[in-house]
Amino acid sequence: MKTSHSHPRTTRRSFAFSLVEMLASVAIIGTITFLAIPNLVKMRGDAERNIAIARAEAINMSMATLIQVRGRTQAVTDWAGASTDQAKYTLLNPYLAYAEVNLTDYIPNGYILTFNTLDPLRKATLTQGTTVIAY
C-alpha cells in the first residue's frame, strides 16, 4: 500500500518594507519636519529675547545695588568717570551673579544695552537693531 504524503504548501513571507511604504514614511517625516522647523526657530528667537531682557533687568538691579553699596554721591562720581558702556559694566560686574567679563559676552548677539544715568536712576535701554525693547 502506498502512502501518500501530502505536503502543505509553505509560503515564504517577506518581512521587509516595500518601496511604497518607505516613500510614505519619508514623506510623513519630511512633512512633520517642514512644519516643525519654523516653530523651533521662533522658540530660539524668543528664548534669546527673554535672556536679553532678564540680563537687562539684572543690570538694572546691579545699578541699584551699586548705589546702595557705594552711596549715591560716590556711585554717581564713579559712574561719571566710566566713559564707556564697558567701563560702566565693569563697575556693576561685582553685583551680578555669574556674569561674563565683557558686556558683549553678557548680552546675546543682536542686542545692544545702553546705560543711562544713575542720578536720577534710569533703566538701561535694550535695543535689537533699531527697535527699542520695552521691559
Description:
This protein has four helices and three strands. By secondary structure, the protein is mainly α. It has one domain. The protein has a three-stranded antiparallel β-sheet with strand order 1-2-3, covered by helices on one side. Helix 1 packs across helix 2. It is rod-shaped. It starts with 18 loop residues before the first helix and ends with a strand. The model has no long low-confidence stretch (mean pLDDT 91).
Keywords:
135 residues; 3-stranded antiparallel beta sheet; 3 strands
Major sheet details: 3 strands, antiparallel
The portion of residues forming beta strands comes to 5-15%
Terminal residue distance:
101 Å
Question: Radius of gyration over alpha carbons?
Answer: 32 Å
Structure summarized in a few sentences:
With 135 residues, the protein is mainly alpha-helical. The protein has helices at 19-70, 72-81, 85-92, 103-106; strands at residues 111-114, 125-128, 131-133.
Question: What is the strand and helix layout of this fold?
Answer:
Blueprint: H1 19-70, H2 72-81, H3 85-92, H4 103-106, E1 111-114, E2 125-128, E3 131-133
Antiparallel strand pairs: 1-2, 2-3
Helix pairs in contact: 1-2
